[in-house]
Amino acid sequence: MSLIGLVLAPALGFPLACEIGKTCEVQNYVDRIEGPGVGDYRCGSETYEAHNGVDIRLADMAAQRRGVDVLAPAAGRVSRVRDGVADVSVRVRGQAAVAGQECGNGIVIDHGEGWESQACHLAQGSVKVRIGETVRAGQPIARVGLSGNTEYPHLHLTIRHLGRVVDPFRPDGGGCEAVGGPGTGSLWTARAAVMMSYKPAAMLNVGFSGQTLTLDGVDDPGPVPAGKTAPALLAYVRAINLRVGDQQSLVVTGPDGKVLAEARPAPQARNQAQYLVYAGRKTPAGGWPGGIYHAHYRLVRDSAVVMERGFEVRIP
Ligand SMILES: [Zn+2]
Fold first, then answer.
1. What protein residues have CB closer than 5 angstroms to ion ligand 1?
2. What is the 8-class DSSP label of residue 193?
3. What pLDDT was estimated at residue 64?
4. Domains by residue range for the chain, with CATH
5. Helices and strands counted in the chain (H then E)
6. Any bridge partners for residue 122, and if so which?
7. From the CA of 108, how far away is ligand 1's center (Å)?
8. Ligand 1 mean position, distance from CA 53 (Å)
9. What does DSSP say about strands 76-82 and 134-135: parallel, antiparallel, or unpaired?
10. pTM
């Protein structure tokens, strides 16, 4: 990356109409390690082999169905468009079916001076722009979908300069050493950099369910409401970007303050993109006593608590 190229780089705004930490999270960054082995711009493992963009993931399929706008990260001119690819998980379609169209429905915007952005996995029929059209920064151009090579609703955004992939979090080449504060050395606007500030891990979904829940079930159809006579009562956390050695715990206490259930999965044997922890019990005869049920989740990494959260539900 030449200095001139960086000087002329566009400032990139946050490319989605969602709220990081509430309705979406960053799942993957650019893999900065050439060849075998992975490393994101902070030398973490929040990426996968040869991943060439940033993945911003919606909390679940319900959010995708409600519709979340994809926004032009900067002003420019639309140079390529694809629409018409079905919103079906690659686990259903199979890898062969998405060969040659891994991006699914996508939009490429030419930002000038050799810079371009490519947005992928857009919802079928949601593309609002045409080739040659001029867009302004922040303009809604499509909605998040499930098209192409994806298992969950997310936006994949690749940034290129003169045809080469650039990591917007650290556009200068080289390794993965940590950079300074938010915005330092990145292509993002200050606001976008703060929104996407690096986390050691994240909680994508947190809550109580009135029925047993699977990892897939959190995405779709989602948990059923907890209640006095629901089949069960369980607290759950879907954590993303777990690292080998991570230790999680989830403890549920009843209105009487006593521990009702707890889960302490074995330390992570490997890095994992997502993991569902839950703790609970079948509903007793006569239903749950009324009151507030608390849950406390904790993630310990290298003997330090890196993520923690308490949450509760009231049973009438
Ligand atoms: Zn991606």
1. 53, 55, 156
2. H
3. 96
4. 3-195 (2.70.70.10), 202-315 (2.60.40.10)
5. 5, 17
6. 105, 144
7. 15
8. 5
9. antiparallel
10. 0.93
